């Protein structure tokens, strides 16, 4: 078989994503036909289609809708929404949805996320879609399109679920994504006083990519919190399924602390339940979940793996959190999806009920020092060979516990480090966490020493 007649790299581990140049109308149509065939093979006959604020998204959504019609499906067109609203709507239509979005990526990129029977795709599913596009093994049919709105239903659910007894002063930054109008409506309905930034949808993203995980993208929100005397701040990514929280001083709250806090909230009313979190989280999460009477369950990084674990009947899970800022509540409230707006409301509710400020709540948790995600280019190094050699070297350590759930994670008494090959490019990611600056330095130095036999450049990057 010859080389694919499309850019192979757009088919990623958990979704489809590429630049506008990668995603021709013809290719997007074929992807839609392949997804339509996948749904039909699963005996599914209806699917929700939504899209984000990007300038290219409405056009791509139109192509996807028509591809589904040509595959014999009933299409529920819900227009421009957040991914949580799209997935909320999917629950009313057999759990099937496609969202046109590139999430937090720049304006010149786009892509597709989807659910089939409430489940996000596995790498094997996406490989199957790619092969179907290549072979053009589509299913013919004559479907229909129905336009519906779930926006009011979604906002009513949030309003009925979270009721605050006091008006919080908050600052929000929607980064010109699709979450802005819905965040404003939800927080206003909850009685909040809001200082808002960039809540108008603008698919050109004039202030940069809608990625709140980048510290430089949070400076304006941080300043606004202080100027507006806000009690805390929330930043949402481009499609609204992630949230980053800042305290009253404009400091970013660690996702580890938020996951721990949310886990305790859910365990208060559901003692003994499972709490799901990914391998990039601090060991503090596992420790406090255990202390709170829960069962910690660590899984691979990625939305798909958290969702699978959360819905696995072997787990009695009530919450799942990912270090990147995805928070799923399944404690018999909400709608069970990773939803930045809902997570923010649940945090406000807990502060309201506890009578604590955010700073007071965080002061009760162990304080950690950590690095952000580090992205280390591999150049000419083979990722699989590097990881194999690193694991052999790491096995010689007497003071570390090795986990290979996803990449290689080494847990020490004082903290942990992890390196993982990327699913999206030729690099590895690394992250480190410890109880003190000195122990963080020592853990990084250990990783650098283990990497040095493979590549001196990578070893130095770990230390920088």
TrEMBL record:
<keyword id="KW-0460">Magnesium</keyword>
<dbReference type="InterPro" id="IPR016055">
    <property type="entry name" value="A-D-PHexomutase_a/b/a-I/II/III"/>
</dbReference>
<dbReference type="GO" id="GO:0000287">
    <property type="term" value="F:magnesium ion binding"/>
</dbReference>
<dbReference type="Pfam" id="PF02879">
    <property type="entry name" value="PGM_PMM_II"/>
</dbReference>
<dbReference type="InterPro" id="IPR005845">
    <property type="entry name" value="A-D-PHexomutase_a/b/a-II"/>
</dbReference>
<feature type="domain" description="Alpha-D-phosphohexomutase alpha/beta/alpha">
    <location>
        <begin position="255"/>
        <end position="368"/>
    </location>
</feature>
<protein>
    <recommendedName>
        <fullName>phosphomannomutase</fullName>
        <ecNumber>5.4.2.8</ecNumber>
    </recommendedName>
</protein>
<dbReference type="InterPro" id="IPR036900">
    <property type="entry name" value="A-D-PHexomutase_C_sf"/>
</dbReference>
<comment type="pathway">
    <text>Nucleotide-sugar biosynthesis; GDP-alpha-D-mannose biosynthesis; alpha-D-mannose 1-phosphate from D-fructose 6-phosphate: step 2/2.</text>
</comment>
<keyword id="KW-0413">Isomerase</keyword>
<keyword id="KW-0479">Metal-binding</keyword>
<dbReference type="GO" id="GO:0004615">
    <property type="term" value="F:phosphomannomutase activity"/>
</dbReference>
<dbReference type="InterPro" id="IPR005841">
    <property type="entry name" value="Alpha-D-phosphohexomutase_SF"/>
</dbReference>
<dbReference type="Pfam" id="PF02878">
    <property type="entry name" value="PGM_PMM_I"/>
</dbReference>
<dbReference type="InterPro" id="IPR016066">
    <property type="entry name" value="A-D-PHexomutase_CS"/>
</dbReference>
<keyword id="KW-0597">Phosphoprotein</keyword>
<feature type="domain" description="Alpha-D-phosphohexomutase alpha/beta/alpha">
    <location>
        <begin position="10"/>
        <end position="136"/>
    </location>
</feature>
<feature type="domain" description="Alpha-D-phosphohexomutase alpha/beta/alpha">
    <location>
        <begin position="149"/>
        <end position="250"/>
    </location>
</feature>
<dbReference type="Pfam" id="PF02880">
    <property type="entry name" value="PGM_PMM_III"/>
</dbReference>
<dbReference type="GO" id="GO:0005975">
    <property type="term" value="P:carbohydrate metabolic process"/>
</dbReference>
<comment type="similarity">
    <text>Belongs to the phosphohexose mutase family.</text>
</comment>
<dbReference type="InterPro" id="IPR005846">
    <property type="entry name" value="A-D-PHexomutase_a/b/a-III"/>
</dbReference>
<dbReference type="InterPro" id="IPR005844">
    <property type="entry name" value="A-D-PHexomutase_a/b/a-I"/>
</dbReference>
């Amino acid at each position: 078989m010859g080389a694919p007649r499309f850019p192979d790299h757009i088919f990623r581990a958990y979704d489809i994503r590429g630049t506008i140049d990668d995603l021709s109308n013809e290719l997007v149509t074929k992807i839609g036909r392949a997804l339509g065939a996948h749904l039909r093979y699963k005996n599914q006959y209806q699917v929700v289609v939504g899209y984000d604020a990007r300038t290219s998204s409405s056009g791509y959504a139109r192509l996807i809708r028509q591809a589904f019609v040509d595959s014999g499906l009933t299409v529920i067109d819900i227009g421009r929404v957040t991914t949580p609203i799209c997935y909320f709507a999917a629950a009313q239509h057999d759990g099937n949805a496609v969202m046109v979005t590139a999430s937090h990526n720049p304006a010149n990129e786009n892509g597709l996320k989807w659910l089939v029977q409430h489940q996000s795709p596995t790498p094997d599913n996406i490989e199957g879609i790619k092969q179907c596009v290549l072979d053009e093994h589509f299913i013919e049919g004559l479907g229909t399109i129905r336009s519906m709105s779930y926006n009011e239903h979604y906002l009513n659910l949030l309003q009925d679920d979270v009721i605050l007894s006091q008006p919080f002063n908050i600052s929000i930054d929607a980064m010109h994504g699709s979450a802005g109008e819905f965040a404003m409506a939800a927080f206003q309905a909850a009685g909040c006083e809001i200082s808002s930034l960039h809540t108008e949808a603008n698919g050109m993203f004039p202030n940069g990519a809608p990625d709140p995980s980048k510290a430089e993208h949070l400076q304006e929100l941080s300043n606004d919190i202080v100027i507006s005397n806000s009690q805390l701040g929330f930043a949402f990514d481009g499609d609204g399924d992630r949230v980053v929280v800042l305290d009253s001083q404009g400091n970013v709250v660690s996702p580890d602390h938020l996951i721990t806090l949310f886990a305790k909230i859910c365990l208060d009313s559901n003692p003994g339940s499972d709490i799901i979190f990914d391998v990039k989280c601090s060991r503090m999460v596992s420790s406090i979940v255990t202390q709170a009477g829960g069962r910690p369950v660590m899984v691979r990084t990625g939305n798909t793996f958290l969702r699978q674990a959360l819905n696995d009947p072997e787990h009695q899970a009530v919450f799942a959190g990912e270090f990147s800022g995805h928070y799923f509540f399944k404690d018999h409230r909400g709608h069970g999806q990773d939803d930045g707006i809902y997570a923010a409301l649940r945090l406000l509710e807990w502060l309201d009920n506890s009578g604590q400020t955010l700073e007071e709540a965080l002061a009760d948790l162990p304080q950690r020092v950590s690095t952000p995600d580090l992205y280390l280019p591999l150049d000419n190094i083979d990722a699989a060979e590097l990881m194999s050699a690193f694991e052999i070297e790491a096995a010689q350590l007497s003071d570390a516990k090795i986990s290979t759930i996803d990449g290689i994670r080494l847990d020490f008494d004082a903290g942990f480090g992890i390196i993982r090959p990327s699913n999206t490019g030729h690099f590895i990611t690394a992250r480190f966490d410890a109880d003190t600056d000195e122990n963080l330095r020592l853990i990084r130095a250990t990783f650098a020493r283990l990497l040095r036999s493979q590549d001196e450049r990578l070893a130095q990057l770990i230390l920088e």
